[in-house]
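ingest -> fold -> write
write: protein_1
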Amino acid sequence: MSSYTHKYNPDKLRSLISEGRNAKEIMKILGISLWSLKEHLLLLQFQDKKYYEVKGLFDKGVEPEEFRISEKDGILFSEELLRHTGFKEGDKCELIIEADRIIIKKL
């Protein structure tokens, strides 16, 4: 499994999907972002060898934002982005650095 997947609960996710919950409901119940839901769904499909469809998974959500890194301010995230990802000011995080991306994992 991915080293940066958090809060992955295949039994709960499977149950929510079978109840017909949409993406927003699942994200709220599990306390995960859209990115995490997509990752969790892929893991579940791989484990179960079965395709699951979640309504609203590919609806227009938060658009990618461009950032500039400043020596003075670092990287600033908009309130909307933080709200959609479940991060709050003061949260402890871990940075996972890969070849072409940095993943910020909430602890």
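write: protein_2
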Amino acid sequence: MMKKITVKKMKLRGFWVISIPLLAILSLIYVFQVNAITNNAYNIANLQKETKKIAQDNEGLEVKITQQAYLPNATKIAENLLLEKINRIEYLNVAQGVAVAK
């Protein structure tokens, strides 16, 4: 006896034959896209850390440049203003019981 395959069973079988591979393909695409997004997020985090480090290094270099540019000029400015180097420091002594000295 031959089994008769009805049109309804053929349509159902065709549906499953098409939908299962399609679902598998879409699942693989989803996995690859999630993997790509994760890798990009990791790379962005690393680049942000590197950018922050470079900015901090840049600030340090700016401070060094400012210090190196200022010190020689400060000496020249002091010489032009006829300032002298301080050898001895003396402080004023205020009496103990005086609140305001006139």
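write: annotation protein_2
The CA atoms of residues 19 and 48 lie 43 Å apart.
The longest helix spans residues 7-80.
pipeline exit 0
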